[in-house]
Design goal:
The protein is α+β, with helices and mostly antiparallel strands. The chain is built from eight helices and four strands, in the order αααααβββαααβ. The protein has a single domain, classed as minor pseudopilin epsh fold, CATH 3.55.40.
Length: about 220
């Protein structure tokens, strides 16, 4: 089975002026698409040639960042989730179930936003920032390098890329400004709400991968 090459869920210009078209196109083409292409090369004609992305991640997880196979598989999944976490004209206050859950777990949106931006600024080096659902509550989690929270049994609701290639072209070293603009102008609350509703109902979200057994280092900002 060949892992399908990704497509953006919107035009590369849709996220401007928060993320400029050239930045989005370069990020998508030079990083996301290359991870998927390299992943297909790594598994071609081998024992994982017919495996799904889920199965590849499960097999590669024990070696983690030491494995090119793991890095390509995890970053393929992470990036696909990241693009869906944003939309044109997004951001603002949470909606529906997300609003109620954020008020319950963070007291209010203001506290949530402050913790999100603090976690983004505190992450050393590359990685990812996530809002996840875990045992009935929302948590803010950072993962190092290519690690994804699904490897800890956490259910992603929203994901934001903290690698420099995601924000340096538009914000330089101002990662805090990138995190602020993501919240205020890009965050796809409809996508987040769908993920939360599904997580509450079934314990799983709609995704193509779900290895739930291998640990990954993460910093959790909770209630």
């Amino acid at each position: 089975m060949t892992i399908s090459m990704p497509t953006l869920p919107y035009n590369a210009a849709a996220l401007a002026p928060v993320l400029m078209p050239a930045s989005v196109e370069r990020h998508f083409t030079d990083h996301h698409c290359r991870y998927v292409a390299r992943l297909n090369e790594l598994v071609a004609s081998g024992p994982l040639a017919d495996a799904t992305l889920d199965e590849i991640l499960r097999r590669a997880a024990p070696r983690g960042a030491r494995s090119e196979l793991f890095n390509c598989a995890a970053e393929s999944w992470n990036h696909a989730f990241y693009w869906r976490s944003m939309k044109a004209g997004g951001g603002g206050l949470p909606i529906d179930a997300m609003r109620a859950q954020i008020n319950s777990d963070f007291k209010n949106y203001k506290n949530f936003a402050a913790r999100w931006k603090k976690a983004a600024a505190a992450q050393f080096g590359g990685g990812w920032l996530w809002l996840v659902y875990d045992v009935g509550r929302l948590k803010i989690v950072t993962t190092k390098d290519a690690y994804t929270p699904i490897l800890r049994g956490l259910q992603p609701i929203i994901g934001m890329d903290l690698w420099e290639h995601a924000y340096y072209p538009d914000y330089g070293a101002k990662r805090d400004e990138y995190a602020d603009r993501f919240l205020n102008s890009l965050l796809n609350w409809e996508f987040a709400n769908e993920n939360l509703v599904k997580a509450k109902v079934s314990g799983m979200i709609d995704r193509t991968v779900g290895p739930m057994h291998a640990p990954a280092e993460a910093a959790v900002a909770g209630k």
